[in-house]
């Protein structure tokens, strides 16, 4: 097992402090939206994403590549190169591989190897639907983070996550309670909570006061950045507020990287302004 010198949570807290940032830039490359003359060219996925990383590396607490956007274009090699590039140019910034894996036994072990050995990510998103034995293989990797889907930003999350269990506890509350308690054997668990549900972010934070919260849904998905920070931020509980399209596609021409930097600066400032004094 190969690991980075510092654990995921240590890297995250240090990057949050060093860059005065709760912003995570999601790397979801869509060649159809690339600037001309790269538009439609999947062979430019690495070049596009590396330019975004270079433009925003001092403004973020994390980067989050979404594996499907690479795999759909047979660009897994570009993803490997990209994560290596982040480690080289922003060694203090953790990389969260957004893969949402969820399986048991030997298969989960292979997914862990994929995330942490092949791609060298610092953390990976997981679905906890199959229970702790689908999470445990990821916890064997010293210092690596596992971020569990808890209360997601999509409307269909209500179908299961908001349902009440016997005794009245909702499914997402049970996940938060387990992640903050008996499942967190490595000390490196986190939770995914959508920005579109600030009241439920606050509930998750109550149940898991110190766990990192990965919060998608700000920006193009319409989540309220200020409400998100008020609900989730704690001095001893980091939040990782993800913005993808609003940063990646802030500009449509050769100045796309500079436009992405300006969008990241504005989002970081908006998030910081909502942080309690």
Describe the structure.
By secondary structure, the chain is of the alpha/beta class. It has one domain: Aldolase class I (TIM Barrel, Alpha-Beta Barrel), CATH 3.20.20. Helices cover about 40% and strands about 15% of the residues. The chain is built from 11 helices and 8 strands. It has an 8-stranded parallel beta sheet with strand order 2-1-8-7-6-5-4-3. Helix 7 (about 170-180) runs parallel beside helix 8 (about 200-205) and helix 9 (about 225-230) packs across helix 11 (about 255-275).
Task: Give the tags.
eight-stranded parallel sheet; alpha/beta; 8 strands; 11 helices; 277 residues; 14% strand; single chain; TIM Barrel
What name goes with the CATH superfamily? Aldolase class I
Helical percent range?
Answer: 25-40%
The N- and C-terminal alpha carbons lie at a distance of 41 Å
Average pLDDT rating: 94
Q: Count the DSSP helices.
A: 11
Global Rg: 18 Å
- Count of domains: 1
Coarse morphology? globular
Low-confidence stretches: none
Structural class: alpha/beta
CATH topology-level fold name:
TIM Barrel
Strand line-up in the sheet with most strands: 2-1-8-7-6-5-4-3
CATH top level assignment: Alpha Beta
């Amino acid at each position: 097992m190969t690991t980075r010198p510092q654990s995921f949570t240590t890297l995250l807290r240090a990057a949050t402090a060093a860059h005065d940032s709760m912003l995570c830039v999601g790397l979801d490359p869509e060649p159809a939206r690339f600037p001309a003359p790269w538009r439609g060219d999947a062979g430019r996925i690495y070049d596009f994403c590396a330019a975004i990383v270079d433009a925003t590396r001092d403004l973020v607490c994390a980067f989050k590549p979404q594996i499907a956007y690479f795999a759909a274009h047979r660009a897994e090699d570009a993803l490997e190169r990209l994560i290596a590039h982040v480690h080289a140019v922003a060694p203090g910034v953790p990389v969260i591989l957004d893969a949402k894996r969820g399986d048991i036994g030997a298969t989960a072990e292979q997914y862990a190897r994929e995330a942490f050995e092949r791609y060298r990510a610092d953390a990976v998103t997981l679905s906890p639907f199959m229970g702790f034995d689908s999470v445990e293989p990821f916890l064997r990797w010293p210092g690596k983070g596992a971020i569990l889907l808890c209360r997601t930003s999509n409307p269909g999350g209500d179908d299961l996550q908001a349902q009440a269990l016997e005794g009245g506890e909702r499914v997402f509350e049970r996940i938060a309670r387990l992640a903050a308690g008996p499942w967190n054997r490595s000390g490196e668990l986190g939770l995914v909570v959508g920005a579109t549900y600030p009241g439920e972010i606050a509930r998750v934070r109550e149940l898991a006061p110190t766990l990192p919260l990965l919060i998608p849904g700000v920006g193009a998905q319409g989540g309220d950045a200020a409400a998100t920070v008020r609900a989730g931020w704690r001095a001893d509980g980091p939040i990782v507020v993800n913005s993808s399209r609003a940063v990646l596609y802030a500009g449509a021409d050769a100045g796309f990287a500079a436009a992405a930097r300006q969008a990241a600066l504005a989002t970081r400032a908006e998030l910081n302004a909502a942080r309690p004094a």
